[in-house]
Amino acid sequence: MNQPTQNRESSDFFWPSYVDLMTSLFVVMLVLFVYSFKLFKDREGELKQANGELKAKAEELEEINKIKRSLQQLEGKYFKYDPTNERHELLVPVQFRAGQDVIEERYKPALLQAGRTLRTVLKSIKTDQPVRYLVIVEGMAARYPQGDPRNAHEEQLTYQLSYRRALSLLNFWKQNGLDFTQDRSIELVIGGSGFYGTGRYAGRREGDNKRFLIQVIPKVGRMRSSQ
Predict the structure, then answer these.
(1) CB atoms within 10 A of CB 211
(2) What is the DSSP pairing of strand 186-192 with strand 131-139?
(3) What pLDDT is stored for residue 142 in this prediction?
(4) Which of 98, 117, 122, 217 could form a disulfide with 134 if both were Cys (CB 3.0 to 4.6 A apart)?
(5) What is the predicted pLDDT for the residue at 222?
(6) DSSP letters of 70-127?
(7) Angle, vertex CA 59, rays to CA 224 and CA 86, nearest 5
């Protein structure tokens, strides 16, 4: 007579426990689902952001390539593009007197036309995004013959000399209405590489290093004014 009673009591104990177990499992699965869903949405947001950034970078790169193609208009009588160093060399064969930074009158007409060409090309480039140009004007100097002690004694002075030569060019342009510093789309940098720098002439052409280099680097995107 006790067996049926015991079976009934066991059954009465089992089902509530089973229901509690299933409820607990359901709660655990629900929590895991919610957590997984959140991770998925977070990851989805990160992927969308990454895709947006990649798209923006691709558009920026395309814009830069378009600008570089437009800068090919500089090539010709006054400028030559150096693909190795990715810069333009001013073709006007300026020759300074040793240790001097004064531009001789015979070079000025061609230098003025070169400056006008540079400004015209930069102003003619049409872009879909805001763009600013980093324009580097670099002066250079030629070494003395090999073994000449002045190469060592005047090494530091030539940095100042080549800088002053570049400054002379900018001042000459400015005096003739080509003030690049007034153009908010242009950031102008003046430099002097002295006896050094990349892409120098060697040997018999050492004297040709008394020249100017012009480098134009486009910077695409929103820019905050420094004023």
Answers:
(1) 23
(2) parallel
(3) 81
(4) 217
(5) 53
(6) HGGGGBTTTEEEETTTTEEEE-S---PPTT--PPPGGGHHHHHHHHHHHHHHHHH---
(7) 80
CA-to-CA separations, 28 to 21, 82, 100, in angstroms, rounded: 11, 67, 84
Task: Point out the residues of the chain with pLDDT beneath 50.
Answer: 1, 223-227
Nearest alpha-carbon partner for 194 in 149, 163, 167: 163
The pLDDT of residue 226 = 42
Task: State how far the Cα of 199 lies from the Cα of 37, in Å rounded to an integer.
Answer: 58
Using alpha carbons only, give the angle 127, 48, 218 rounded to the nearest 5 degrees.
Answer: 25
Q: Which helix (H) or strand (E) holds 90?
A: strand 87-90
* CA–CA separation, 154 and 141 (whole Å): 11
The angle formed by the CA atoms of residues 35, 37 and 26, to the nearest 5 degrees, is 60
192 strand-pairing partners: 139
186-192/87-90 β-pairing:
unpaired
Closest Cα to residue 89, out of 219, 209, 218, 217?
209
Burial class (CB in 10 A: 0-12, 13-18, 19+), 117: middle
Query: SS3 of 10, please?
Result: helix
